[in-house]
User: What shape does this take?
Amino acid sequence: MTSRIGRGCRTAVVCLFLVAGFSSSLLAKIPEGYGDVKLGMHKDQVVDVLKQNPSHFSYDDRGSEIGEIVRGDNLFRYVTYRFDKNNKLVEIGLQMREVVGRDEVLKIFNSKHGLQITPHQKTVEGDRSLQVRDNDLVLRLDSSSDTRAAKQADSQVSHTAR
Assistant: This one.
């Protein structure tokens, strides 16, 4: 009788660990931006944020890009905000601190956000992607072509269901 109870308890504990691991992977989420600057913002909004927040005192507006020297972040030293032709923020490039090292930055970033980013694998979630390019961590708002493909797949499913 006790051996069955023991096996039942062990099975329950294993199941709890599996459920906890699965639910924590669901909580992992690609960040929407860097600090108070979010993907999808209009360039004017980004410039206003940079002007109003004293932590963004060192930035340079270069037309379709804004470059910023980062202060007070142990992982990243430079940020590049890239805009599309409609002045919508579509990419944030975060240059990693060489002193810390790429592998250590990725390890800390992954643990902070519950992700598993590697230099060889792009992570995609909804309309955002995150990937490593050389010594940069690039957060990107993907184009509408990806959403069109998803809508086509949805419409094919709905036609099949009829």
